[in-house]
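ingest -> validate -> predict -> emit
validate: passed (alphabet ok, no gaps, 221 aa)
predict: started
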Amino acid sequence: MKILCLNAWLVAVIWPALILPAFGQNSRSTPLGPAVASDTGYARVRVFGIEATGNKFVYLFDRSGSMEGPRLAAAKKQLLESLQSLGETQQFDIIFFNHRLQAFNSSGSSHRVTLGTERNKKLAADFIAAVKADGGTDRMLALKHALALQPDVVFFLSDADRPMSAGELDMVAELNERVGAKICAIEFGRGDPPAGKSSLETLAKASGGEYVYIDTDKFAK
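emit:
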């Protein structure tokens, strides 16, 4: 009887003391390190020199009439090169916008992104080649749609024909509060950058993203 009681005491007291740290204290006191790209499927991609890391990317590119010619050609070239950095575990979507949206759709759903397989990249290249510049510009329509896809990163390319208002910037920040996407803004302009901080730079910095200004006069040279 004494031996049975002793065994029961060992099971009830000593055994939990040995195993609980492995599931409790150690797991709390040894936090996980930062994610490693090769282990998590994350990719580092680039557009016009801006680099961003993530697993789900949205390319949101202006195709309004002011983008016609060398501007749109340069944007398409950068987009095609950026797609090559994606592996089959990464996801992407491509949205060209003017006053309407023209989105790449390989899955048949406007709210699903695409895996970066070679087949899908080829389909994306065909889609990009067919895009033409015309019409006006509705950046808010485009940004709302992009953020609804809940990406890690939005590469947002637009020209400097009209700054975004403070109200529009606040609305984007509010929409992005839950998503947490980094908005990396590429602003096309002519000549030197505008004096002061542009609205697209403000948009990018508020989300933790990067900003670059591109003098498009150089494209024609």
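The beta strands are 43-47, 50-54, 56-62, 91-97, 101-103, 114-115, 153-159, 182-189, 211-215.
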